[in-house]
Amino acid sequence: MAGGGDRGSSDPAAAAEAELRRGFETLAVARPDPSAGVYEVRLNRPAQRNALSPAAFAEIPRAMSLLDRLPSARAVVLSAAGPHFCAGIELGGPGNPLTATYSKGSDPVAAAEGLRRAILEMQDALTAIERCRKPVIAAVHGACVGGGVDVVAACDIRCCSRDATFVLKEVDMAIVADLGGLQRLPRIVGYGNAADLALTGRKITAMEAKEMGLVSRVFDSKKELDAGVAKIAKEIAEKSAWAVMGTKAVLLRSRDVTVEQGLEHVATWNAAMLRSNDLKEAIRAFLEKRKPVFSKL
């Protein structure tokens, strides 16, 4: 037993692989094509329309952290089982801090602080999607409601099938959306579109989501969505991992700072990254008119 633990601690990739094989309660994580560096993280509670339970909030960051550490993972597809992508936060389930009741004599300040901590933990669970160094591509079909939109907003690329619908329902539930949608959506679709969605709680179609920039591609069916997103992920996975991860990191950094600060950040980043063997290989391959063979992580 001790020997196995030592091997796991000295080989992070093997440890991450072993942890993934343990499986999940609310997710299914797989590598559909062993020859490609693409992993699929599938919301896997179809009977509950993939509503986000406390277990889901615990498992999403665990899966993203493991894939972040796994060299064979070069791109991640985030999809869902069943007819719908996600029904939002599961209400009324056990352990849900949003619907927890407190005893009459409990300290209201302590209760408020407990709820604040719970919200911050749920926020952090979805930010883990954004924090994963590997690009995450959302494949949305059916209904994407409330917290499901927050999940999608944390992804790097968003695609959907023609039957997909999106709605921020929190305002109709007398709640201020608090899992990142109000912070990320204005940067994705613009302030006006984000305010329209958040204040009205109206449902939008796949084509309207495309028009406002919430998704970049719409596929005619779930089957075409799965194939199309797999192709996008495979193409990304074949590029230099250092360039892909660096591009994601710089995009996120530049989103939250001024243009001048973003330029300074990428200059510092590339001062190191432009020395990579992948750049030399890309130039050689271009001159030799062949496909480049990039280094492993």
In brief, what are we looking at here?
By secondary structure, this protein is an alpha/beta fold.
Task: Please tell me about this protein's structure.
- 50% of the residues lie in helices and 12% in strands.
- With 297 residues, the protein is of the alpha/beta class.
- The strands form two sheets. The protein has a six-stranded mixed beta sheet, sandwiched between helices.
- The longest helix is centred in the middle third of the chain and has 24 residues, at 108-131.
- The radius of gyration is 21 Å and the shape is globular.
- The protein starts with a helix and ends in a 10-residue tail after the last helix.
- One of its GO terms (biological process) is fatty acid metabolic process.
- Pathway: Lipid metabolism; fatty acid beta-oxidation.
Secondary structure elements and pairings:
Elements: H1 2-10, H2 12-21, E1 27-30, E2 38-43, H3 54-69, E3 75-80, H4 108-131, E4 136-140, E5 143-145, H5 147-153, E6 157-161, E7 165-167, H6 181-189, H7 191-200, E8 204-205, H8 206-212, E9 217-219, H9 222-237, H10 241-255, H11 259-273, H12 277-287
Parallel strand pairs: 2-3, 3-4, 4-6, 5-7, 6-9
Antiparallel strand pairs: 1-2, 7-8
Helix pairs in contact: 1-2, 2-3, 3-4, 5-6, 6-7, 10-11
